[in-house]
Every structure is written in structure tokens, then in C-alpha cells.
Design goal:
By secondary structure, the chain is α/β, with parallel strands linked by helices. Helix content is 38%, strand content 18%. The strands form two sheets. Strands 2-1-3-10-4-11 form a six-stranded mixed sheet, sandwiched between helices.
């Protein structure tokens, strides 16, 4: 899988930011014995294809509650690439990371992490990928019709924006795993938009003929007033995908990890889950490595091992 040098430039820039943000992250003088050895700040990175641009207020409320519960600062940063978050996690520059199923697999390979929590559902809208084109494209009605067209994936480390839709195309169209992204093989060109909402906007604006995006992103972008759902047409979809999960550094103090998990599992702000998951009844549940066995199988199918 080829990545452009721009990814690494972005990674270097964001890692510099993370390094500066975490420069004060020294061992704190414990207030009591329970917090002996804890850092004075916990840093979380939220990845782009799992964020909801309309949920900043509830994210801030979550962070404030988390800070009060732990008794140490909690800082949330945003990154542009999954690779940035994984590298920062590996380097010990952040502590908790929200990862897609594919990035969970990659995180296990490159960093010493443990699964923390996931959600039983992404809300009332199933978590799966859909293939979209503009609704007025009468010449594109199935994924077969994408032949010779411009197409956008999200990010090569994204499950719903790359891995699952790529596998769907390979299985349904009989395409070669190693050639599918080459210009002129099936698509005229393949781009990586970086974010699901960027792919949606790219299709609406005519930058791409088609794209693969998580289904729930369409309603989020529409609810933000950026598009109308009627601007788009769905021409194919994947099966339901395992949900994203939070992972944490395995070398954090054991009692700190227990407190982090306790907070997530007890968090019950209905408005938070309404804003981020479109379902006020949703809650965090404990995540296990076995939840992502399907990803390991997909990795073999797509020959993603580098």
C-alpha cells in the first residue's frame, strides 16, 4: 500500500504539536497513595472519521467530567491521519486513542495498547459503508458503473472509508487487490480525501464521481446544513462493520487504567450519546480483542500486511 509523502509531513507537524502539548506531562506529585505514579495530564486524540462536527459542546462536557473524576487534567486533541495518532501512541505522547477497527489492528502491531471501550451500536443508523454518487448521475446506478470514473476513499487506515469498501469491490467485481487503486485499472483515478465529510462534499461539488463513506456521515453533514440528503444517491453498501473503540496505553498505572474504564462504563449523559451517536440510549461497553477478529481475516484477504 503506497502512502504519499504528505501524510508523513502532516504526521511530523502534528507530532510536534503533541510533543509540545505533552511537554509538561511529568510524573505528578501524588495527592494521595491511589494516584502515585500517575501523570499530571491524560491526552486523548479523536480521529476524524469518528467525530461529529456538531458535538463539540458535549465533547467539552465529557472532558470536564472526566477531569473531575480522575483528579488530573484531560486534554483532547484532533488529528488529520490515523497514522499520526498511532505513531503518537507508540511514542507515548498520548494515552487514549479512538480507533477504527482497522486502526485497532494496526495499533496492536505498532504500540503496546489495550482495548478499553466500544459502543454496542453507532446509533439508529447501522455502521456500514455506502457507495455514493450525485443523485443526478443517471449513468451511475451500481458499483459496476464506477468503471472509468474518479473515486475517493477516505484514508488507507480507515475501516469504513477504505478497508471494507475495498473488500466489497474486490469480491463483487473480481478486481485485483494490488491493482484496484492504480489509475486506469478500474477507476480513472483514486483519491484519499482524509475525512468522510470531505468525501461527501467532494461528490456533491463534483470533485469525485463516487466515494465510499460511512452511512451515518451523510445525515450528519445534511443536519449541519452543508448538503441535502437528496443530493446523493447510494449505489451499493457493505455489511455492518464492527464499531470503533478506544484503546489505552498498556503501560499506564494499573489503578489509573481501572479508573479510566470505570468512568467510561458509568458515563450516562444522554445528550452526549444523542449528539455523538444519534441515540440517547447508547452507552459505552467493555471492548475485547476478540471483537475485532473479523479485521484480522480481512487483512489477510486484502493483503494489507506491509
Amino acid at each position: 500500500m503506497k502512502r504519499s509523502s504528505g501524510v508523513f509531513l502532516v504526521a511530523a507537524a502534528v507530532l510536534t504539536m503533541l510533543s509540545a502539548a505533552c511537554s509538561k506531562k511529568q510524573e505528578a506529585t501524588p495527592v494521595d497513595g491511589e494516584r502515585a505514579g500517575w501523570p499530571d495530564k491524560l491526552t486523548i486524540v479523536l480521529m476524524p472519521d469518528e467525530g461529529n462536527p456538531g458535538a463539540n459542546t458535549k465533547n467539552n462536557d465529557f472532558v470536564q467530567s472526566f477531569t473531575e473524576f480522575l483528579g488530573i487534567d484531560v486534554e483532547v486533541l484532533e488529528s488529520f491521519e490515523y497514522a499520526v495518532g498511532l505513531e503518537a501512541l507508540r511514542a507515548g505522547r498520548l494515552d487514549l486513542l479512538l480507533v477504527s477497527p482497522m486502526s485497532y489492528y494496526q495499533a496492536k502491531r505498532v504500540a503496546n495498547i489495550e482495548p478499553l471501550v466500544t459502543t454496542g451500536t453507532e446509533g439508529t443508523i447501522p455502521y456500514k459503508t455506502v457507495f455514493i454518487v450525485k443523485s443526478d448521475r443517471d449513468d451511475i446506478n451500481t458499483v459496476h458503473d464506477l468503471k472509468g470514473k474518479t473515486f475517493a476513499f477516505v484514508d488507507p487506515a480507515s475501516s469504513s472509508g477504505y478497508m471494507f469498501p475495498k473488500a466489497k469491490l474486490i469480491k463483487d467485481l473480481g478486481l485485483d487487490t494490488e491493482q484496484i487503486e492504480n489509475p486506469g485499472y478500474f477507476f480513472k483515478t483514486v483519491a484519499y480525501s482524509g475525512k468522510h465529510d470531505s468525501s461527501v462534499m467532494g461528490v456533491v461539488m463534483g470533485d469525485y464521481d463516487g466515494a465510499a463513506v460511512a452511512l451515518q456521515i451523510i445525515s450528519q453533514v445534511a443536519n449541519a446544513g452543508l448538503i441535502k440528503e437528496s443530493d446523493l444517491k447510494i449505489i451499493g453498501e457493505t455489511e455492518i462493520i464492527p464499531t470503533a473503540c478506544y484503546v489505552m496505553r498498556a503501560d499506564l498505572p494499573r489503578n489509573l487504567k481501572a479508573k479510566i474504564k470505570e468512568f467510561y462504563l458509568a458515563y450516562d449523559d444522554e445528550e452526549f450519546f444523542r449528539a455523538l451517536y444519534q441515540n440517547p440510549q447508547n452507552r459505552f461497553i467493555e471492548a475485547f480483542d476478540s471483537d475485532y477478529d473479523v479485521v484480522y481475516e480481512m487483512v489477510q484477504l486484502l493483503k494489507i500486511e506491509q
